Amino acid sequence: MKILVCIKQVPQKDAPLKLNAAGTWIHEDVSYEVNEPDAYALEEALRQKEKHGGEVVVLTAGPARAQQVLREALAKGADRAIHLEDEKFVQLDSANTARAIHAAIAQESFDLIVTGLQSDDFGAAQTGVLLAEILGIPHATIIIGIEKTDTGLRLKRELEAGHYQHIETTMPALLTIQSGINKLRYATLIGIKQAKMKPVRKVTWADVESKISPNLQQIVRLYVPEKQKRTEMMEGPAPEVARKVVDYLRTAARVI
Amino acid sequence: MAFKFKGVDFIGFDALLSSDELMARDTARQFIEDNLIPIIEECNREGRFPRELIKPMGALGFFGANLEGYGCAGMSNVEYGLVTQEFERGDSGLRSFVSVQSALVMYPIYTFGSDEQKDYWLPQLATGEKLGCFGLTEPDFGSNPGGMRTRAVKSGDEYILNGEKMWITSGTLADVAVIWAKVEDEDGLVRGFLVETDRPGFTAYDVHGKWSLRASVTSGLSLQDVRIPAKNLLPLTGGLKSPLMCLNQARYGISWGAIGAAMSCYDTALQYSLLRKQFREQPIASHQLVQEKLTWMISEITKAQLLALQVGRLKDSGKVGHEHISMAKRNNVWMALECARMARDILGGNGITDDYPIMRHMMNLESVKTYEGTHDIHTLIIGQSVTGVPAY
Fold first, then answer.
1. Fewer Cβ atoms within 10 A, N terminus or C terminus of chain B?
2. What's the ipTM?
3. Which CATH architecture has domain A2-211?
4. Is the Cβ pair B23, A196 closer than 8 Å?
5. Span A85-129, pLDDT tens digits
6. What number of other Cβ atoms are within 10 A of residue B240's Cβ?
7. CA-nearest residue of chain B to A66?
8. B75-134 residue pLDDT tens
9. Are the Cβ atoms of B73 and A196 closer than 8 angstroms?
10. Has residue B4 been placed in a domain?
11. Which positions in chain A have a beta carbon within 8 angstroms of at least one beta carbon in chain B?
């Protein structure tokens, strides 16, 4: 099975974020890490390869710093990497990111493409499904179980309220993976050394520019949620206060 | 309740590290966070070495990580140091175990061993299938190993070993002991021998009642007419310089390890000081005397990082002197012990319980200050280096 894993480098979960002067994105002087659901997608791809053989290719789009997530994936056992390397990739919306990835893998054919169900920074959950659409292959989201069958894949999807859905698909297919589907492996120290020898193909902005359109989505303004402290003290005898509380919950808060 | 470790980097130290160095550190950090931190207080309390971590550590390549070939990862010395830092951030006892396996057992076999010895032992030691210990110190000879009484006598195609070794990490766990002895037929020259621990006449017993390194095994070894084949001699050993070369490896690792213990104490004290409120409902972090302690700690940790890194870079380029390693070991362990004491002070009464890692680090570091060349012996090594006059 030839598997592509799309990985994004995102700011570390507990990084202190500061907004840029224009209020359109964050200051980039933070630490970065692998987008969590993408780490699970990689782990799942490595497990499928261990079971069924084949190749695991990892891909990311972002500036030079983003190469770190590819190196980590190679250290964990991915065979090679594709890096769409340019600062400008960070600002693309989901549709354009999908187009750029599509252009970068035009010469390849994968049996399976996996990625995290969404990114921890933008959280759009669109890039994967849009890439499937452009490729004209079936996709399924929020996957928590993958089993290869004679005709394709049997999948388990997570629905809301503790419900699951079992579906089947042919291959090639694209799946977006839920965090926690498996137990992540560590990069071994030997793996870290071997990662250096593995090929990383660079794709420049110019290589894919012709496939990119103006962004359909734009960040107009980012802001830190403003604290609105509204505490109302109710005083008096308990039965009277209780009546006031019920009245408040009914008419003002409208929760009962 | 202990706090989740947030890492310590005041001056953008990480920017001095390569991506491989960061990855090696992060792998070790995550491994320790997931596997050691949840059990270490129980291990320390029970005086239990976490044997269950041996195989996973071997699988990730933590044993002999800076050796080439034989299933070893071939890490640089800086990468190896960063891994050691993360282990000791968890616990000095577990780090001691890894140091002994790597620097005091695998390194001498790698450096002084025959091809047969290397081919047989190194792959099994790298995976943790076999464990080793290092027997240099004796009950009466610590800082002055040249006075050792252990003797090897050649008898046909065998050596017969007699002697007592003390303060031996992993002694009762080991499958093989690297024993240093004076060879009678060679004018008392100190040489190293590989002694399988199941040989008749070899016994190991544990030291009980330790208030330090409780999560690692410390033993005494007794050799009474232990016969080993002559081929168990480490052929390239010759004189006290050989074991001291091993100690240099281990001391280098300790200079990084101590930073890890200090980081754990500092990070705990910092997070605690921001939560603990006293006087006017203000966190104690707002008190000048608390800030002075935190400032001291972060300054010393930062200086220690730079010292260890430079010594590591010298080691990687083959330019390190043993006096450089002495300075890093001496300074960084002292600094870590001071950090542990200040951090304990900031936590007040909470600092003495094992709800927090501080007292454990403090007790561990008392051993670390003494082993692998005491603080005072390193003072004399540096003193001799700058004056040219030995003052032992």
1. N
2. 0.86
3. 3-Layer(aba) Sandwich (3.40)
4. no
5. 999 999 899 999 999 999 999 999 999 999 999 999 889 999 999
6. 16
7. B19
8. 999 999 999 999 999 999 999 999 999 999 999 999 999 999 999 999 999 999 999 999
9. no
10. no
11. 14, 67-68, 71-72, 75, 186-193, 196
